[in-house]
Amino acid sequence: GLLPDLGHEESLEVTAIHSVAGVLPPNQPLVTRPPFAEPHHTASAAAVVGGGSRQIRPGAASIAHRGVLFMDEAPEFSVSVLDALRQPLENGELVVSRSESTVTFPARFLLVLAMNPCRCGYHGSRHRDCTCSPDSVRRYWQRISGPVRDRIDVRIQVEPPAIASLDAGLAAAEPTRVVAERVLSARERQLKRLADTPWRVNGEVPGPYLRRHLMPPAATLGPLHEGFRKGVLTARGADRALRVAWTIADLAGHDAPTQDDVAEAVSHRLG
Questions:
Q1: Strands 110-113, 102-106: parallel, antiparallel or unpaired by DSSP?
Q2: Residue pLDDT, tens place only, 224-234
Q3: In this structure, which long-range contacts are made by residues 111-120, counting pairs with CB atoms below 8 Å and at least 24 apart in sequence?
Q4: Taking the CA of residue 126 as centre, how many other CA atoms within 13 Å lie in the half-sphere pointing to its CB?
Q5: How much is the pLDDT for 68?
């Protein structure tokens, strides 16, 4: 509900993928809204990244192209399935190889992972006792490998809300329509800024171009340099935090990221 409609070229891309995958509704010849895919945590690698014994078909990651791939209970997915997402998160494509053929599917999606803090769900809770051992909690978190975590840009820990908080939140929450207008405005700023490039949004911009042509003023980069100096940000993490800072600036209507925008991006990165 927050994402703008697909452009014409994007609609053709998504429609072609859905047609090959066999999920295109018969009464909908053209997909115009960003797709949403939600594979179950028991899904196989072929179901998520694509495959098949005779005919290679796209999986949920490609069906979510230009939309959202939501993976609930992320640590319950096979480690090999999660690690297979490293390639599309980096370059927006999935290469599926079999003995007789190799197929490349587009797979540029927004990845949303959700997970409990441990198997019982109460690690760190102020209201319930966790029954998991420290070693069990550590193993649970390690099911999402370091390289995959390094490709997650925004990390938010959510506490179970009280009834009063729910009521207050509902009363104060912005309607989806209002936030969607802000997102559309931010997307338009990105399209204008990237008009002479092959990219449409901040998340597609490669690191070298980002550092060479979209580097904010040095005075605003203190939080980024501090995180890199302390070792809590990798080189890839610094690039990804910088992309998020640009998106925060676009949502706020800034011409370039401010120091507060960069600090917020780093904070989201570190969780």
A1: unpaired
A2: 999 988 989 98
A3: 111/69, 111/71, 111/85, 111/152, 112/68, 112/69, 112/70, 112/71, 113/71, 113/74, 113/144, 113/152, 114/70, 114/71, 114/72, 114/73, 114/74, 115/73, 115/74, 115/75, 115/144, 116/73, 117/157
A4: 5
A5: 97
